[in-house]
Amino acid sequence: MKPVFHINFDFDTDSLLEEANKQLKDKSTASHRGYEVMYDDWLFAPGGEVANEECKRFLNHYDLEEGDGRYHLLKADSYLIPHVDIDSTCGVNHVLSTDRAPVNYMKEEYTYKTALLDTTQKHGVVNLGYPDRIIYKICFRKHTYEEVIQKINGTH
Fold first, then answer.
1. β pairing state of 79-83 and 90-95
2. CA separation, residue 68 to residues 55, 65, 88, 93, 131 (Å)
3. What single-letter DSSP state applies at residue 11?
């Protein structure tokens, strides 16, 4: 099974991007979450009102019980070294920036606007030649990648 599953869901991209820009620029919320040494150019910010509402709408639409929304920014002309997420099993990534650097799983590259990613497999992003990469992410901790795909496909 491929580690990236494309999703066609109508997120409110404009409102999410507006909120992401505020959250990521706010020094009290944006952080490196303790990864300063490895991830100088990768920022996180908690979801605000828009992110929380969009998360609820997504979860309700696909009958999913848990998940939380947040924002990530990978600065222009930088990279996110291959890693496995330590705080989630999978996540829905919705790219808010216009240019989309691909996510890399080993030697395979995947470009997407909205997709479920298997975050238990090593993945990274080479954002060289691209502007800041801003994503809205819904993280799952209890559901496996396969379970979320089943819910999205309506085969639960």
1. unpaired
2. 6, 10, 10, 12, 26
3. -
Q: What is the mean pLDDT of residues 46-60?
A: 96
Query: For the residues 33-40, what does the mean pLDDT come to?
Result: 50
Half-sphere exposure of 38 (CA within 13 A, CB side): 8
What does the radius of gyration of the chain's CA atoms come to, in whole angstroms?
Answer: 15
Rounded to 5°, angle at Cα 30 from 55 and 143: 35
pLDDT at position 36, please?
Answer: 41
Rounded to an integer, what is the distance from CA 116 to the centroid of its chain? 8
Digit-coded pLDDT (tens) for 128-138: 999 999 999 99
CA distance 156 to 151: 5
